[in-house]
Every structure is written in C-alpha cells, then in structure tokens.
Design goal:
Layout (H helix, E strand, L loop, with lengths): L4 E3 L18 E2 L16 H14 L8 H18 L1 E6 L4 H4 L5 E3 L1 H10 L4 E5 L2 H10 L4 E3 L15 H10 L5 E4 L4 H4 L4 E3 L4 H7 L4 E5 L2 H10 L3 E5 L11 H10 L4 E4 L5 H4 L4 E2 L2 H11 L3 E5 L2 H10 L4 E3 L13 H10 L3 E2 L3 H15 L4
Parallel strand pairs: 1-10, 3-4, 3-5, 5-6, 7-8, 7-9, 9-10, 11-12, 11-13, 13-14
Antiparallel strand pairs: 2-15
The structure holds 1,3-dihydroxyacetonephosphate and iron/sulfur cluster.
C-alpha cells in the first residue's frame, strides 16, 4: 500500500530554526602516535609484492595506473599489520580500496555485524561517518578511525534527534524504525534500526499496525509496498539514488531487450518499477553472482559496478554512473595517513552511545 503520511522539517512549526544534525565528531590524531611516512616509490620489489593484488583489479584499473597506486597499497597493508588494525570497506569504495587493502567488505548490515567479531584493537572504517559510528557503537572499547570525518550522507543529514522527538509527540505510541543511515543521536531516539537488507523484516517484527520509518522516503515507499503495516515516512532522500530516472532504464531496455536491470531500494518508485530485481548492495552482488547475466545495468553508486566487474569480468556492465561524493572522500592517501597518525578517531558520548547501541543491537539480534 502507499505510505500513510510523510513529514519533514517544514511540518513542525515549533522545530528549532537553523538546526543541523550533531556534527561529525572525530578527534584529531593523538600526540606522539605518529609513525614516519614510508617510501612510496615504485620499485621492482613493490611490483613483485603487489602483483597478486593487481590480478584482482586488472579488469578495472589500467596497468598504466598501477605504479601510482601500488606503493601506497603496499604501505597500507604493512602498516595494518604493524598497528594491529583491520580495514572495513563498504561496497561503494573504489576497487583499489575494496579489493586491495580491505580485510572485510560488504553492505552496511554486513559491516555492522562483522564489526562485532573483530579482534583487532583498531578499526579503520572506509565508508561514511554513520558507518564508522555504528562500528564504534558496537565496539566501544576499540579505536575506530575514519580517514576523513567529513564523509557524510544526505540521509543522515536530513534528520536530527529533536525531529524524532517531535514525530513521537505527533504520533504517541507509534514505534519508530531508523535506517542505519542516521547519526548516533537519531539512533538513540528510536526503537530499532534497519538496513536496506532487512527493512521489511524489522518493520514487521514490531507487530504494530503503524510504524514511523525514517529518514528515507523512497526506502519507506518500497517497504510500504511489501507489507500491510501502515508506514509514516520522513522527507529524506539519498542524493545519489534519487537522481536515477525510470526513463533512463526504459532507454537501456529499448536498446537491448535482453538486458537485466537491478536497483537499490533508495531509488524512486518509477525506477524500481523498471527493475528486474531490487535489493541492498549485498543482495545485488549475490544476485549477479548467482544469475551471471550477460548484460547488466546496476542502478546504484557506480564504484560497486567496478567492484563486481573486477570479480566477474564476463558480465558486461552498462553503467549510468552516479558517484557518492561522501564515499569518495575516502582515498588510499588518507587511509595511509589514518594508519600513520591514528586519526581521525570517532567518538560518541557514552550515555548517548548506550541508547543508540540498543537500537542497533535489537536489529542484529532479530532472528532471520
Ligand atoms: P547498503 O546497506 O545496501 O549497503 O546501502 C548503504 C548505502 O549507503 C546505500 O546508499
Ligand atoms: Fe548516503 Fe546515498 Fe552516499 Fe549511501 S550513496 S552514503 S545513502 S548519500
């Protein structure tokens, strides 16, 4: 069914003006922690040591570019060992990060779950700030680093903890589900979190006739189409996925009626209506691994198409390319810097973290 109502900042006359979400909190590098910069020269030894890594990305990184990347990749992998660190990378990270320096890659649910199993004392989060915050919530005793704390998200920036309190006043007793693409401050105000992998399951787990689902209006619309639970949504959107258009997809299909189209549920409904499959980034990747389509259009952030093509070069990708500017703030250079200086460290007020953690753990503990 269609969503029951949709609200945003303009719908609350008493909302404090000029309010912005809690700023991204990251502490500068600790004094005395820095290690010296290693050599970043392209040498025969670097070429030999990184040859197996180049094999993984040779279909998506031209050989002429490898000498520019390989010395930093080698330095990161050595420093990771020296620091006892683990690198988590979201599926939207560039191939040289995702395939060459990450220990664990995945969608936001996988990264949240893997974060709880990590033995290393230092986690370097290659993704956006809410992902690093989620890792910190689940690993409060570990040092969580983000190579650039300005890596935000238009969804996380669309809503504050105060907005959730206003929604609760307007709809007393209605449970609130927050997409993980929110700040810790918002997670602290809600009943449970979800990701795009488990959103319908989480909404139905509450056994309520109506649920407030925030902040993504399009994911809310998708969830509403899959359940009988009434959904009240928030007016947030992903600045990357909302740019896709149904007509673009129809043009791909007209050019080749055999093409397969898969899309992320953050896309608008006219886009999802044209897709052969809709799912989270991990569900999309699994779909490609299983179906092995000859020609594929992947409607999501375009580094993910590169990462899939590196693994499955026989699948021809047609790529309407929308990059996430926030994900792209993470680079090999700032990952190296982060390991050298142990900056920028993600910190969350312990009392707020305690409440936010409950919402994330409640999601993780849901039975499959
Ligand atoms: P996934 O949970 O599917 O990885 O999505 C996260 C995200 O930010 C998509 O834009
Ligand atoms: Fe946020 Fe969209 Fe970027 Fe994902 S792709 S991090 S939802 S802005």
């Amino acid at each position: 069914m269609p969503i029951t109502g949709i609200y945003g900042p303009d719908d609350f006359a008493d909302r404090p003006q000029g309010q912005t979400p809690a700023s991204h909190r990251a502490a500068p590098a600790r004094p005395g922690a820095a290690l010296p910069m290693p050599s970043l020269e392209w040498t025969p030894e670097v070429e030999r040591a990184t040859a197996p890594l180049y094999e993984r990305v040779k279909h998506v990184i031209p050989s002429i570019e490898w000498p520019l990347l390989a010395p930093t990749i080698k330095a990161i992998n050595e420093l990771k060992q020296a620091r006892g660190a683990v690198i988590l990378a979201h599926n939207y990270q560039a191939p040289e990060i995702f395939h060459c320096v990450a220990d664990i890659g995945g969608d936001s649910l996988q990264l949240a779950v893997e974060a709880t199993k990590v033995k290393a004392n230092i986690i370097v989060q290659c993704g956006v700030h809410f992902m690093a915050e989620t890792s910190k919530l689940l690993n409060p005793d570990k040092t969580v680093l983000i190579p650039d704390s300005r890596a935000g998200c238009s969804l996380a920036a669309s809503i504050t903890g105060a907005d959730v309190r206003l929604l609760r006043e307007k709809f007393p007793g209605v449970p609130v589900v927050a997409y993980v693409n929110t700040s810790a401050e918002v997670k602290a105000e809600v009943d449970i979190c979800c990701t795009s992998s488990n959103a319908v399951q989480v909404v139905e787990s509450l056994n309520a006739p109506t649920v407030i689902f925030l902040p993504d209006r399009y994911l809310a619309t998708y969830v509403a189409s899959k359940t009988d639970v009434k959904i009240i949504a928030w007016k947030g959107a992903c600045e990357v996925h909302e740019r896709f258009k149904g007509e673009e997809l129809r043009a791909f299909r007209e050019a080749d009626p055999t093409v397969q189209i898969i899309a992320h549920p953050e896309c608008p409904p006219d886009v999802l209506a044209e897709a052969d499959f809709t799912g989270s980034t991990a569900h999309m990747i699994n779909w490609v691994r299983e179906k092995r389509p000859r020609r594929l259009v992947m409607i999501t952030e375009c580094s993910m198409a590169d990462n899939v093509r590196a693994e499955l070069p026989d699948v021809e990708m047609l790529r309407p390319c929308n990059l996430c500017p926030h994900m792209k703030r993470i680079t090999l250079a700032n990952i190296l810097e982060s390991l050298l200086t142990l900056g920028e460290e993600v910190t969350i007020d312990p009392a707020l973290a305690e409440r936010a953690r409950r919402s994330v753990e409640r999601m993780i503990n849901l039975k499959n």
